[in-house]
């Protein structure tokens, strides 16, 4: 019997990494916008890049939770049933 995954699914660590990257990127971006520092442009670009890199973790989390029935996988990787 297959285990049932609830909540975040199989890839909880990818989910939390994506959330962490989003939060850190947004904080850095907002600090660059609202705090009066001479390197504000670096913070704005760095925050945007970190938020963009969080997309990698979101894709990993999403693709790790895709469920494909074994019957659909049989003809995918050389496990094609032979005609008798």
TrEMBL record:
Keywords, sorted A to Z: Membrane, Transmembrane, Transmembrane helix
Domain of life: Eukaryota
Protein's UniProt name: Long intergenic non-protein coding RNA 675
Stretches assigned to coiled coil: none
Ranges that cross the membrane: 12-36, 42-61
A Pfam family this chain is assigned to: TMEM238
Organism: Nothobranchius furzeri
């Amino acid at each position: 019997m297959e285990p049932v995954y609830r909540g975040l699914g199989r890839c909880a660590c990818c989910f939390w990494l994506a959330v962490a990257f989003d939060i850190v990127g947004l904080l850095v971006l907002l600090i660059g916008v609202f705090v009066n520092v001479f390197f504000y442009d670096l913070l704005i670009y760095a925050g945007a890049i970190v938020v963009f890199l969080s997309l990698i973790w979101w894709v990993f989390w999403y693709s790790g939770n895709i469920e494909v029935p074994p019957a659909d996988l049989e003809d995918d990787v050389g496990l094609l049933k032979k005609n008798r």
